[in-house]
Amino acid sequence: MSHILIVEDEEFLVRAIKDNLTSEGYTVSVAMDGGAVADEIQKKKPALILLDLLLPKKNGFDVLRDIKANPEWQLIPVIILSNLGEDSEIKRGLELGASDYFVKSQHPIQEVMDKVKEYVQR
Strand order of the sheet with strand 48-51? Predict the structure, then answer.
């Protein structure tokens, strides 16, 4: 059973994504702010991380940079799931090492779930 880490501060969205993932058979942990991500990864290394960019304590770009700079974590796929949808923000996220980038308002949760399955099965 694969483990997914959700890094998101919107409780409604966390519940929706977590419910979808657990119904698909994944185990899930949640970090509600950017400062808690390292602890969550160390507790149980995830097969994939869903990362918001607008977070309390530490923004998602910095979190992504930290993940990709750590030799033990750099191969974990990170899918950005954010309200930030400018081309420059998308480009920055991908350049920092994100595997994919979804603008929340433009993609239904099922599309994100399909992408999660795709990356975890690789």
Answer: 27-31, 3-7, 48-51, 78-82, 100-103
